[in-house]
Amino acid sequence: MKRLRIEHATGFGYEGEVSASYNEARMLPSTNDGQFVLSSSLEIDPSTAVNAYVDYFGTKVSAFDVLSPHRELSITARSLVEVRPRPIQHADLLWDRLALEAARSIEAVEQLAQSARTAPHPEVVDLARSIAGAHAHPGRAAHEIAMAVGDAVEYMQGVTGVHSTAREAWEARKGVCQDIAHVTLGALREVGIPARYVSGYLHPHPDAAIGEAVAGESHAWVEWFAGDWQGFDPTNNIEIGDRHVLVGRGRDYSDVAPLRGVYAGPFKSTLHVKVTITREA
């Protein structure tokens, strides 16, 4: 088990003075089976009231409006979280039983439909079907599919954008964690395995020194349902461990974007992001 302190500073800069902005932040983790939140807070500048709620998928949301003129908007989320490894445990479940169980569960069945972001490339369809056909147990097929996608798509920044699709990332064979998660989701859903997008943070160093603050990033991985929900990080081809801090779940990135908003004004906006992670125990 590790204790991680996370500071996620982000926001918008505007080319001129805007009269108002309306925003949602999904930047604070929740306590679940794999992690315990010791503390969390959200600081907003300009200061304003926050309406906090949990969305349909169980993600903490901080909704707020800034109704006075401003040129910048800054949000800083601070969390202290204890995290334990969550190794994969394959259930003894066959394909026909999975289909029955998924159809009976709203949580699972709605994670079977493809979105515009996850719709798979024909080559991904062939890959997923080939692997699924070689396994009697969908959980083991899901694991191999996720690893195959992770092997095939190289992590590289600057090739794709925030609105890129799984098809585009596959054609480039390059992308960031968001893209690799979308490709994996498309492959799993294609063969009837419910799968959801997970957003959070990953400490970049497995053997991090206690007290050392390092530059981090928001991260994305996947969870699939094959009797139980199991998580896997296809970008790094590793199981979910004590370096992964979960923030939100959804159908794809659109459901869990860390910060989104609209504003009143004719000016362009620029997003800035800085994540710092410190291991404290």
Written overview of the protein:
There is one protein chain. Strands 3-6-1-16-10 form a five-stranded antiparallel sheet, with no helix packed on it. The protein has a five-stranded antiparallel sheet with strand order 13-12-11-9-14, with helices on one face. A four-stranded antiparallel sheet has the order 4-5-2-15, with no helix packed on it. It contains six helices and 16 strands. The chain has helices at 95-104, 106-109, 122-133, 138-152, 166-172, 177-190; strands at residues 2-18, 20-25, 35-45, 51-54, 60-66, 70-83, 154-155, 174-175, 195-202, 213-216, 218-225, 229-233, 238-239, 244-250, 259-264, 269-279. A hairpin with a 3-residue loop joins strand 11 and strand 12 (229-233). With 281 residues, the protein is of the alpha+beta class. It has two domains: 2-84 and 257-279, Immunoglobulin-like; 95-255, C8orf32 fold, CATH 3.10.620. The radius of gyration is 19 Å and the shape is globular.
How would you describe this structure in keywords?
281 residues, Immunoglobulin-like, five-stranded antiparallel beta sheet, 6 helices
Give a brief outline of the structure:
The chain has helices at 95-104, 106-109, 122-133, 138-152, 166-172, 177-190, and strands spanning 2-18, 20-25, 35-45, 51-54, 60-66, 70-83, 154-155, 174-175, 195-202, 213-216, 218-225, 229-233, 238-239, 244-250, 259-264, 269-279. It has 281 residues and is an alpha+beta fold.
